[in-house]
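Quick question, first post here. What does this chain look like in 3D?
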Amino acid sequence: METRTATVDADGTDEVTARLADQLLRLSRRLHRSQRQLLEPLGITPAQARLLRALAHYEQPPRMADLAHRLDVVPRAVTTLVDALEALELVRRMPDPDNRRSIRIELREGGRQALLDLRKARRTSAAELLAPLDEDQRGALTALLAVLDESSAPEPARC
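> Answer (accepted):
Ran it through. Tokens below.
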């Protein structure tokens, strides 16, 4: 039985792992670029889209600090995003009934519709990226990515 020795780069990474890393980064960039193009007509930036998706995960309107924590950003960044989304009438600020010094952020009907449009944009981008693969190849890729997804260390819920 023949044993293959992986060629190792100067940084200690084998060639195959380095190539996979480069491929994943390129594909991720392509997917994000495509999504940005599809979001543009909606007037929503990727950061605003991420905040809208985060809002959808809460059963009750979250506080700004909760959103900042979930998105792993400083509270000021959330304020700026909420200002822009409020101007687009996608979210609204509301007083926290339990703490008058705190503000909660609520999705408006326009925000719920924007989430549906965002989901469609994400799926369209993914479909374009995956178009060269047949059904069996997509299934195999899904299974491989699931292994990586399940084996990764637990992270805070992100959107």
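Helices lie at 15-39, 46-56, 64-71, 75-87, 109-130, 135-151.
The mean pLDDT is 88.
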